[in-house]
Design a protein that fits this description.
Blueprint: H1 2-14, H2 28-35, H3 42-50
Length: about 55
């Protein structure tokens, strides 16, 4: 039971919609996490695509 509770808390923390780059909360963060595997918002994704450094 305790392991299940820990896994649920970890999953909820992972889906908190906070971008790892700019630390802003955005709905697109969870969408990008599902699509590309990174927790970044739409604007950070575009900037990383244009300026990949």
């Amino acid at each position: 039971m305790i392991k299940d509770k820990d896994n649920e808390e970890k999953d909820l923390k992972e889906l908190d919609n906070i971008c790892e780059e700019c630390k802003d909360e955005n709905e697109s963060v969870s969408q990008n996490l599902i699509l590309i595997g990174y927790k970044i918002c739409k604007s950070c994704r575009v900037s990383k695509t244009i300026f990949p450094i």
